[in-house]
Amino acid sequence: MGDLALLTWTFLWLSLLCVGGGLGVIPEMERQSVTIHGWLTAREFVDGYTLTQLTPGPNMLIAVFVGYRAHGAPGAVLAGLAMFLPTSVLAMVISHHWQQWRTRRWAATTERALIPVGVGLMAGGVYTLARTAIHDTVTLALAVLTALAVATDRVPAVLAVLAAGTLGWLLSR
Amino acid sequence: MRRVSLLRLIAVFTWTGLSSLGGGRSAYFHEALVRRRGWIRNDEFVQDFTLSQVLPGPNFSNLAVALGYRLAGMAGGVWGLLAIVLPGAFILVGAAILYLHGAFGGSATPLIRSLSAAVVGLVCVTTLRIVRGSLRGGRGVVVAAATFLAVGPLRLSTVGVVLVMATVSLALHWAAPARSAPPAETTTSPEEIC
Description:
The complex is a heterodimer. Chain A is mostly helical. Chain A has helices spanning 2-17, 26-36, 42-54, 62-101, 105-133, 137-151, 157-171. In chain A, helix 1 crosses helix 4 (62-101) and helix 6 (137-151) runs antiparallel to helix 7 (157-171). The radius of gyration of chain A is 20 Å and the shape is flat. In chain B, helix 1 (6-19) crosses helix 4. The two termini of chain B are 27 Å apart.
C-alpha cells in the first residue's frame, strides 16, 4: 500500500517536469524507477520506452508500463492517472480562460511572445528525434521519401510512414 | 461553440491517436485536423501547440485537451484526452504482459528504427508548415532560433530554456508591442500557407 502511494506520488511530480515534450523527463524517471525505488530493471525500462514508441498513444504511457511492472493493474491505473489527470485538468482550465483572456492586450502580447518559444521547442524536438533516428544513408533516404510523400498532401501521413517503415525493415533483412 | 459533434471528435481523435506511429505525434494531429479536415486553423493549432508545450505535463495529452476544448468545449477536452490515452494504455498493457513473459525477441528493432526515421520526414514537413504560418517579424525568428539551438544542438535543459526564453521573449514583445493590435489580425488562413 505504501509503495503504491509512493508510485503515484512519484509519477505525479514527474508529470509536472514534462515541459516541451516528454523526452526531457526520461532520465529522471529512469533514476526514480530503477535506481531509487527498484520498480524495474534498467533493461526493462529501455524496452518499455521502446514499446511506448511502437504502440499508439503518448510516450508518457511509460508510466503505465512502470506501474504495471511494479504493482500490476492497480499500479498501471494509478501511475497513469498521476501522469495524465492533474496536468490535463490544468490544460483544460488554461484553455478555458485563455479564449477569454486573449482578447485583452496583455494576453495577446504574451501569446505573441510565447509562440516563437513553442515553435523553437518543436524544431528542437525534430532535431533530437533526427539525431537518434537518422544514422546512415538508408534512414536518411526513408526520412526524405516520407517528407516528399507527406508534402504532396495526397498520401495520409500514417500510410507514408508505414510504407517507409516497411521498406526500411525489408532492406535491413 | 461546438464545431463538430462529440461522436465525430471521438472517432477522429481515437483514429488519429491509434494511427500515430513512431513519435512526433502532434504532427499527425496537424495533418488530421488542420490539413485534411480544416476543423482548426493553422494559427489556432500553433496556439494550442505552444500551450501544450509551455504548460507542465505530457505535451501530447495537453494538446488533445486544448484541441478538444476548442472543438467542443469541456466535453470535447475530456473526450479528446480519453480518446488518445485509453486505447494506447490498453494496447501498452497488453504489450507489457507479452513482454514480461518474454514474447519479444530482437526482431522488432529494425522495424521500430525504420518507422522512427520515416517519422522524422513527417515532422520536418509539419514543422516547416507551422513555422511558415506562425513566425512574424525579426523578434519571433530570433527567439525561435535561439530556443531551437538551446534545446536542440546545445542539449540544454528544456525547463531552464523555456523559463529563460519566455522571459526574454516577453521582455522583447512588451518593450515594443506589434503595430497590428487585435490577435485576430495576426492569424493566417489555411489557404495562405498551402
